[in-house]
Design goal:
The chain has helices spanning 41-48, 71-81, 97-107, 114-123, 139-151, 169-186, and strands at 2-9, 18-19, 24-25, 30-34, 56-61, 64-65, 82-85, 157-161, 189-194, 206-208. By secondary structure, it is α/β, with parallel strands linked by helices. Helix 3 packs parallel to helix 5. It is globular, with a radius of gyration of 17 Å. The protein starts with a strand and ends in a 5-residue tail after the last strand.
C-alpha cells in the first residue's frame, strides 16, 4: 500500500538534509513510527502524506509513484487512498457532524451515503451527535469524529498523528482500539506517528527515529 525509498528532505535555508529510514506497509498491516521531538517524525508524516515533496527519494502509494505527482494530482490521490487523523481536528465549525463527514466523502470523490455516516457514528457511540455542531462536542467526542472522518470514505491507508499523547492509559487503549477496529473493517493499513512511548508495548511492528544531528 505504501513504500518509501531513500527519503531525504531539506528545509529552505537549512544547513543539513534530513534522512529517513525506508518504510513499507501493506493493507491490513499496522506500523508505529516512534520518535521524540527533534527526530523529524512530523516531517516524515508530511512526506508520506504528500504535504511536502522530498528533495531525494520517493514515496509509492497503491503501487504508483506518489511523491512525483503534480500537487493537484497528489491531493486527489491522498483524498482517494488516505484518511488522516490530525493532531488538531480542523473541522468546518459551521457544519454539523454529519455534514463534516459528508464533506469528507465528497472531497474524496465518493457519492453521498447517509447510511454509511450513520452506521459509523453508531459504531463510535456518537449516533446521538449526528446533527450536532462540531464546536459543541467535547474533546473526546471531537477525537472520535476525527477518526470517523478519516475512514468514512474507506481509505486503504489510515495515518494518525499523535492520537494518544494527551490521553491517560484507559483512553489511550480506547483510541487505539477504535483505530484498529476501523482499519480492520476496511482492510486498511494503519500508520501511527507519535512520541508516546506507551505505544511500544501496544504495537509490535515499529520504526524508531533517532535524533537528528
Amino acid at each position: 500500500m505504501l513504500k518509501t525509498e531513500g527519503l531525504h528532505y531539506q528545509y529552505e535555508g537549512g544547513e543539513s538534509e534530513l534522512a529517513f529510514p525506508d518504510l513499507s506497509i501493506q493493507k491490513g498491516d499496522e506500523l508505529l513510527l516512534l520518535g521524540a521531538s527533534g527526530t523529524g517524525k512530523t516531517t516524515l508524516l508530511h512526506l508520506v502524506a504528500g504535504m511536502r515533496t522530498p528533495t531525494r527519494g520517493q514515496v509509492a502509494l497503491a503501487g504508483e509513484a506518489f511523491s512525483t505527482l503534480p500537487t493537484a494530482a497528489r491531493d486527489r490521490a491522498r483524498g482517494r487512498h488516505m484518511g488522516i487523523v490530525f493532531q488538531t481536528t480542523h473541522f468546518v465549525r459551521s457544519l454539523s457532524v454529519s455534514e463534516n463527514l459528508a464533506l469528507a466523502r465528497a472531497l474524496a470523490g465518493c457519492p453521498p451515503d447517509e447510511a454509511r455516516i450513520q452506521g459509523l457514528l453508531e459504531e463510535l457511540g456518537l449516533a446521538h451527535k449526528l446533527h450536532a455542531r462540531v464546536d459543541a462536542l467535547s474533546v473526546g467526542e471531537q477525537q472520535r469524529v476525527s477518526i470517523a472522518r478519516a475512514v468514512v470514505h474507506g481509505p486503504g491507508l489510515i495515518l494518525a498523528d499523535e492520537p494518544t499523547s494527551a490521553l491517560d492509559d484507559a483512553n489511550t487503549d480506547a483510541v487505539l482500539s477504535l483505530l484498529r477496529k476501523q482499519a480492520e473493517r476496511t482492510g486498511a493499513a494503519l500508520l501511527i506517528v507519535t512520541h508516546d512511548q506507551r505505544l511500544k508495548d501496544r504495537m509490535s511492528d515499529r520504526v524508531e527515529l533517532n535524533p537528528i544531528a
